[in-house]
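From the shared-data thread, chain only:
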Amino acid sequence: MDGVPRVPKQWHPGSEEPVALRFSVLGPVRAWLGDDPLPAGSPQQRALLAALLLRDGRTATASELIDALWGDEPPSQALAALRTYASRLRKTLGAAVLVSESGGYAIRSLPEGALDHVNAQELAADADKARAAGDLSRARDLLRDALALWDGEPLASIPGPYAETQRARLEEWRLQLLESRLDMDLEQGFHAEAVSELTALTAAHPLRERLRELLMLALYRSGRQAEALAVYADTRRLLADELGVDPRQGLKELQQRILQADPGLAEPSAPKAEPVVALVRPAQLPATVTDFTGRASFVQELSDVLAAASSEEGRVMAVSALAGIGGVGKTTLAVHVAHQARAAFPDGQLYVDLQGAGSRAAEPETVLGAFLRALGTADSAIPDSLEERSALYRSALDGRRVLVLLDNARDAAQVRPLLPGMEGCAALVTSRIRMVDLAGAHLVDLDVMSPEEALQLFTKIVGEERVASEREAALDVVAACGFLPLAIRIAASRLAARRTWTVSVLAAKLGDERRRLDELQAGDLAVKATFELGYGQLEPAQARAFRLLGLADGPDISLAAAAAVLALPAEATEDLLESLVDTSLLESAAPGRYRYHDLVRLYARACAERDEQPPSERAAALSRLLDFYLSTAAGVYAIERPGDRLVDHLEPTAYPGLAFEDRHRAQDWLYSEAISLLACVRQSTKGGFLRRSVDALWASVDLAESGTNSKAYEGVASALRQAAQEAADPHAEARALVTLAYVHYYTGRFDPAREAAAQALELAAETDHLTSCWASNTLGVIALLQNQYEDGEAHLTRAIESFRACHDRAGEASALCNLSRIHLATGRTGSAVSLAQQGTDMYDDMGHALKGANGRYALGLALTQSGRLAEATARLGEALTVFRSSRQRLWEGMSLFRLAEADIAAQRPAAAATNAETALTVLRGIGGEWRRGNVLVVLGQALNAIGHSGRAQVCWRESLDIFQTLGAPEAATVRALLNPLAVA
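Structure, as tokens:
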């Protein structure tokens, strides 16, 4: 130290960066210069600073400030103390900021944005303007920004009557802003998300009726009518007990409207111009072709229908259905007309390929989920059932002018839930069948091109100069193509790419082909013959790629997977695939992903059966693809579960998979490839493929555990089990049964899970030690959940011994954590904590982040029951963070549920209600009804503790219904909770 006193950095008049000075009063009273905090002094000195800041630059006299700091009992030297505080603040802030004036003080010369409460005022004013203009989305965002400026209690720890008054005012203002934001949340359809926040707010402010009203509306719109009515009953009882008054008229009217199931409550009360969801204008139409040719009468006919629908006089939704054989140009025409009509549908255009000509047409539920997301609906607000999604979809389109293009539909039943249903909207549908049963649709039958149109299209692609001198040959070419647009485009593209060919050369090549006009009348055969034209002009390497890639099931294929099918480097594979895209025989679904038109895929497979030599190459290609998926999935499994011995006991592969630098990229691959991976596994159930398929499914168990792909995973597991039975392969059957046991357990179906695990254990007992270990572990967990503790302990003890025998520390850690829960359920709390800690430590030693979170989950349960609640909350919070980052929605929801249990034990019922409500939202559609029932029990306990006893009864009754339906023993616990209330 040099002995020189250190003076805080100050801002002086003329300094270059006055904007760096800023203050906060919406929390602790603080000051900063840039990012450096400035000393604000003692509580009384900060009280002076707050009093001056809240006067918005106006001068406060000394007597006013003395009253503000000390009220009716100022100290004898109050004026001197006031001057001392002012002098210290002036040294810190600068003389130009804190000025003396007329015997008082003022804060002046503050830069724009320097004071948080002024910023909040401006944001709130802008929000009011946005709401008045109908822009609810922007208004909500502005209010969120304003509310984010609060940092705890306003004027925290500031003494004096003035601070107390302002503190109450600022808190009331915050609540008003919060109510406005929540009101707009409900107006835009975010009722499910609002429930947990409103539950916590009503617990913190039980007498605030507006919050109760919003909670009732949010619950009602979330399909929880009984809980909404219970909120009213709780409110009426509370107001009578505390204030001796009845609920205000608005609350009474809302109760009556809920009792009457008023349709007006089902949707926001805002004008129709304000959609239920955040306003998003989707623009999903595929690109139109630049050489679109002919079809003038069809273009005019369809354009007139769309124009009538979009006009001010339009009173009904317009539906136009185009029918025709594959390759006739239905999609091209529909996309062209849709682009021309875009201006008439300013609120957006939606598009989907319904894959109706294939064996696995798109499910309407899936399509509606994608449409709702495109229209701005949050994932958490999208309901599960087809009927609810369709209703929300129509609500989202109400008051909007949107064009929907439903391409390649299977039938009218697939289309009906996807129709907008609102005036001003329109739908274009393309299909191979004529939809005579689609009520009210304008039907258009699309035939092949006329000779003149066909020649025009051919000329546009090939070039005027080459066609002009060989017009007759060009007519021969388009006639050989059957005047089918796709066939003409393929042939013309090949000719355009070969400058040494003449049109006559192409015509001569086509002259030896079958009579395509005759085959045109045979439906799909005409399409196949047309594809033959393009296929016959491929180079040998292109033709091989075309044939082999068509063998793979799944909606599309990645570049890496395609390289495995072709046994080529990625660069060479990409060149081949892009050349196939140029010929229109393959589509580029997204960067690095490719797909066939469904009819082209069928044709490619026919070519493979006919032309691939030797025939064994077809099986070899699919074998390489399966190897790729198994190897890559095993790598993902190893990254997620370091030390787990499963990867050492998988079937060997001849073709390598991808390698990843970190677990997040590995997860990205697994979830992006889920559908294609499962399709490959399901396809590969014969001969030497079966065991590798089973192992690939086991290695990708995260798809089932996350809840995201449980249904598809279960279907594949069932198919593999059946294939293993038919093949009399007990090894494969046992492993398939383990995957079935997993998915049944994760979806809350414990009886079939126990049956599958028991069968796996029996089959694997002598031949597959690792499968036997995991089957025993799974049986132990299921026994725990079914209250069969003695059996569970026996299974888990056997699993621990078996895992140790084969040096599988990850498996041992899993069984230890599961055994911890058996000890916990049987009252051995101390040993439960010890076992869970031991398992967690083992996971941590192996660097096992994801399963380490499962260990912390088990440890959190044990710590909760042992009364070590702070530690329990910390461990469960750590687990929650990992599960969220790993996209494990099932365990994310269960961690929130366990945090709610810990909150109940710690007498934090408001926090418990928030966590339980969030758990219900996260677990919606996954995890099964048993888990939902348990969350409802805890939510009811939390609600009861914060005075919402009516809602608590509703939650408990719903959980009782669940447990009684399942025959679960938890029903007795719920009855005990309900009985005291029933007696009262």
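The longest helix spans residues 161-187.
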